[in-house]
Design goal:
CATH architecture: 2-Layer Sandwich
Strand content: 35-45%
Shape: globular
Order of helices and strands: EEHEEEEHEE
Helix content: 10-25%
Strand order of the largest sheet: 1-2-8-7
CATH topology: Gyrase A, domain 2
């Protein structure tokens, strides 16, 4: 899973194998370590559950989790949509949220594109 933070936006990109794990386990996560201290880490996660009505964000010290409804996660996994998008209110305005399929890069080799979704423009001329 890839995390991108830019300005007041947060985006996760997930691979097909991560999508499978998300649907079967209800959660996928990654942890980034910033130093030798055990507290110098941040976990970012994607979850789905039946109680979630819409995309939301849960923040606790050292963890950021985006929650999806189970219905939305299943529909997105089986459909052609690139991602699911939403917003979370903060004390400094709105945080934009995006969870997207990780597509193959058109300018990389097949080896570099292992475990990616087929790019929608693959095979088309620019």
């Amino acid at each position: 899973m890839k995390l991108r933070i830019q300005g007041n936006s947060l985006r996760l990109r997930i691979t097909p194998s991560e999508m499978t794990r998300l649907l079967s386990n209800g959660r996928i996560e990654e942890t980034v370590y910033f130093g030798p201290d055990a507290d110098a880490a941040m976990t970012y996660a994607l979850e789905h559950n039946t109680q979630a009505a819409a995309m939301s964000l849960r923040y606790t010290p050292r963890e950021i989790a985006i929650m999806l409804s189970s219905a939305d996660a299943r529909q997105w996994a089986g459909g052609q949509e690139v991602g699911i998008y939403g917003e979370a209110p903060t004390s400094h305005g709105t945080l934009s949220l995006a969870v997207e399929k990780d597509f193959a890069c058109l300018d990389k080799s097949d080896a570099d594109n292992i475990d990616t979704f087929p790019h929608p423009n693959q095979g088309t001329a620019c």
